Amino acid sequence: MIIYCEKCGKKLIERNPNGVWHFQFGKQRTSGSIVDIEIHGSIKMTCLRRSCRHVNNLHYFPEHK
Hints:
This protein has strands spanning 2-4, 11-15, 21-25, 35-39, 43-46, 55-58. By secondary structure, it is mainly beta.
């Protein structure tokens, strides 16, 4: 599942089915992306688009309604 910025719609991060966030950033090289990390937990992420810079709160646990 791909997560997009709430304000501008830019692609931010991927969420795996097990709930772990997968973030890749940078140009693809023979060895892979420059930044390639997995995050377990909630995160606060600033949009990477320079004209946006909106702070997105991404919760590890889904919100109950």
